[in-house]
């Protein structure tokens, strides 16, 4: 953004990379896959680079309202400086925070989740993944809480899975009844509480019941937990975890 502003240019979107996309080695691959698609589509976007910080979502979920406000106001000021109007995000938690919580603090933006953008591009014929790459592959889709129940985005990821030629397998709990991956609400950053079974193991078992070969996700938290679940079950050879952006990138 700083480089473009220095040249007097204004991109259409701010692509918000997010904490996972910046620091998690596995999710960096998802960001690269999505950037590959953006370049393929010639989408006008820029990133903040070192000026990007956390949205404040984990702080608020954990009950630290002061820290949330500090992070939010810092971001809103940065967005004002660069005249940001549209934000493109790959994380449902970031999406939800920008869309529903920043307006209370004066931050009003058009917020787009990448699943919605990708589905629209496929529907309009601007993005044409090869539907033979995943033809015959059984894919179970896990609904992230902050994408599904919080924002009613259910069909777009499923349409993308079908567009790459895969066979969609629904878990017994899906759509608005889907089970959480176990990492939301800042649970990602704390030790597990006492109980008979961790949530991510329960959800991985539900995916395995579908005989899927791939668990498709649209959230960095969900990807982390599903990957851990696959490892816990020693199913790395039979069951893979891909983000929908990776499915498309592999089919381009």
Structural write-up:
- Helix 3 packs across helix 11 and helix 9 packs across helix 10.
- The chain is built from 11 helices and 8 strands.
- It folds into 2 domains: 2-117, Rossmann fold (3-Layer(aba) Sandwich), CATH 3.40.50; 127-250, 3-Layer(aba) Sandwich (Rossmann fold).
- The radius of gyration is 18 Å and the shape is globular.
- The protein is α/β, with parallel strands linked by helices.
The count of helical stretches stands at 11
Give the ordered list of helices and strands: HEHHEHHEHEHEHEHEHEH
How many β strands by DSSP?
A: 8
Shape: globular
**What integer is the average pLDDT?**
95
CATH domain class of the largest domain:
Alpha Beta
Task: Quickly count the domains.
Answer: 2
Q: Give unreliable regions as ranges.
A: none
Q: In percent, how helical is the residue content? A: 40-55%
Second CATH tier, the architecture of the largest domain: 3-Layer(aba) Sandwich
Strand arrangement, major sheet? 2-1-3-4
Task: Summarize the main sheet.
Answer: 4 strands, parallel
Look up the CATH topology of the largest domain: Rossmann fold
